[in-house]
Amino acid sequence: MWFGSNTYPRRKGNSFWRFLYDGCEDTTLIILMVAAAALLALGIITEGIKGWYDGGSIALGVIFVMVVKAMHEYKSSLKFQNLNEEKQNIQCQVVRGGRRMMISIFDIVVGDVIHLMIGDQVPADGVFISGYSLSINESSMTGGSQIVVKDHKSPFLMAGCKVADGSGKMMVTSVGMNTEWGLLMASISNNDNDEETPLQVRLSGVAMFIGKIGLLVAASVLVILLIRFFTGYTEDNEGKVEFIAGKTSVKDALDGVIKIFTVAVAIVYVAVPEGLPLVVTSTLAYSMRKMMSDKALIRRLSACEMMGSVTTICSDKTGTLTLNLMTVVEAYICGKKIDPPNDTSALPPKIVSLLVESVAHNTTGSVFFPEGGQEVEVSGSPTEKAILQWGIKLGMNFDVVRSECSVIHASPFNSEKKQGGVAVKRPDSEVHVHWKGAAEIVLAACSRYMGSDESPVPLDYGKLEYFKKAIEDMSAKGLRCVAIAYKPCAQETVPTDEDDLANWGLPDDDLVLLAIVGLKDPCRPGVRDAVQLCIQAGVKVRMVTGDNLLTARAIALECGILGSNAEAQEPNLIEGKSFRAMSEDQRLEVAERISVMGRSSPNDKLLLVQALRKRGHVVAVTGDGTNDAPALHEADIGLAMGIQGTEVAIESSDIVILDDDFASIVKVVRWGRSVYANIQKFIQFQLTVNVVALVINAVAAVSSGDVPLNAVQLLWVNLIMDTLGALALATEPPTDHLMHRHPVGRREPLITSIMWRNLLIQVAYQVLVLLVLNFRGIQILHLHHSSQQHAKKVKNTLVFNAFIFAQIFNEFNARKPDEINIFKGVTKNHLFMGIVSLTVVLQVIIIMFLGKFTATVRLSWQLWLVSIAIGFISWPLAVIGKFLTPSVNILSIYSHHVHRNVERKVEMRMMSEC
């Protein structure tokens, strides 16, 4: 492409080799590699080339663990990179072939004509063609905070700036790296996945606390083993004393010390649950990718986990709870109801002409008539499209009407004024000012209405009440009411100077009412079920809308936000201006009860969010307009609409709802709870492995001077825990069971009393069985007929094998910490089943074929059954345990003590970010 594409080079994410290099910097692994090298050298010196097994097996084990973990982290990184690409993919309105269409910002080329609206981002460098009150915020490029008005005197627009007000068209002159924005973005790294979430901070603290305990145990084991070794209380596999003062060679003594040291370091490696913070990354990467298919794009990592704690959702009405497919179904013209609303036979020609003139000019939409008699294409906001389609039915030829008159000034619609106007110069040089907006607001500015005789009629009290009653009746049916009015202006009142005209305030009083129309916007299918699901999950849904209170009330009843007519009264139902007029204390008191806020401004939404947060709620709020940005930023989770949302709203949000559907928001809540639940499952699983491995090695070391789980075996255990375990449990899809719980409290401990109960039952069982096998296994299994060396190897292999199978079976228990049926939905999680199967296969290979590396021997089929049986018993034990009520007081106090310091760090970090 001659002028280049509208893209810029992005910094590549870390490669696989980078992750592998980072893994090599792990202090514990470095110590293990040094120990492995020493053992390798000693083994070869002592036994020749055959003596490489001890050191070589540890080295290979360390390398294998590092490679698997690097692959896991690299894949997670790739997922985050793909999601970051989606964040940059902004949709823009362009005109091609006379037709307005939405395209990706990356597809814009030089020469394209771009339509700009409030909240849009300027997608490329260009020049102003036409527009009204087009104001640009250039702070992102110039650093200045002043809003710059663009017109023919100041026509240049820079990529990356935001439209603060007005609307207009621009022609693209430079794209991509030929713009200042492109050069700036190319120099910035967008590695958003480097963000550390609050949950990762908490887990890092928990890992540090547990790691200290593990380090203490490992140090104790090291000291005890060294004392036993040098005092002659340690025997080799043949029953001979390993160290005799004055007789054992330095080389043999050094070999023994290094092996002891290696075991202690391996215990530390297993004891430190470094997989805890990493499992958050795995869970988020998986969940964010899945949420994309559920029409939600996560912009900030912490929002994903925070959604599990949401207690209230402040939702817009239009397009979120409704379909945003509006049609004009009722119309009041000439002081009477017109049925059907496009029946021109009941209307005088002058009235139709004025309506068509208003509809065609007072709009930011467009109409395209394809060749070949195809259906007319109407573009614009849903309200604009509905009124344009109504105008076409009235006989409007959009292009002809637009060509007959010229727009000399405009006051674009915004959510604060709730009306927009335009001044048009007719062929006879007469100027008409047309207004369109919220029916009661425009009606209040009218002093006359157009009568059937084509002349303005004074709007007396009786007729005013008639129109108000019409608005109430339409609103009660859930219709959005829009009024259309105009005012003819005398020539001498219209500025002729270009500068004066640009600053002219369109007259908005003494208007002549042309029509009041009611627009039907049906509720989305399934929205009532979605609202009920939120209520069942302990999440209160509140509607905050700019529509009038009666329309909001009707839709709220239809959606189930208001349960009955009895609830549809103050303070459950309130107008924005009433809430705004209250004192802060009154707002705090009333906010809890508000279910519907009608005729609200973006500032009212912000006040409601602030009040709810002060009441202790975790608030999610939806928004699509530029003025919604403060509320989106203030809320715990800002949810921007992907279809109707402006770029300013999207950039202020944490999550983008790609289809604007409320049901998609509920899915995000499910995923948020799933993230938290999956992390808790992994914590329960990993702590069980940690505690059991620590206890059996520590007890065995103190009692006999030997450990049943050697360094290579512990590396394999670590792999099962940190990488395979994280993958298996982090990818559990959300279930309906999650929506039967209440939201997760912000200060709720990560390790709940239920988790403690499950963990302690499994730890007690595994430790008891494995220690019995370790100390009495030879007698119980009748291994006396074998040599002492072989019997000990068989016993140690069985302990190792039983330990691994206990973890495999316990992985199923961890899936459902508080449910009896641990197999529910397990076959649908193919990754979980695949990882469990892979673990079993690898364990069989290790025992049957890699004995020299792991210091194991082949087991008979009977001992394989024993290993499986030991693991299997954990299932009925878990079921029985779920009938026991955990001791909430003791365990909750302990959990609070463990997490207290971590919580302080999280709070300090969040405050510093704010």
UniProtKB/TrEMBL annotation:
It is an enzyme of class 7 (translocase). It is a multi-pass membrane protein. The chain crosses the membrane at residues 27-45, 51-71, 209-230, 260-286, 682-702, 754-773, 794-810, 830-851, 863-884. Belongs to the cation transport ATPase (P-type) (TC 3.A.3) family. Type IIB subfamily. It comes from Lactuca virosa. Its EC number is 7.2.2.10. The lineage of its organism: Eukaryota, Viridiplantae, Streptophyta, Embryophyta, Tracheophyta. This is Calcium-transporting ATPase. InterPro entries: ATPase_P-typ_cation-transptr_C (IPR006068), ATPase_P-typ_cation-transptr_N (IPR004014), ATPase_P-typ_cyto_dom_N (IPR023299), ATPase_P-typ_P_site (IPR018303), ATPase_P-typ_TM_dom_sf (IPR023298), ATPase_P-typ_transduc_dom_A_sf (IPR008250), ATPase_P-type_domA (IPR059000), HAD-like_sf (IPR036412).
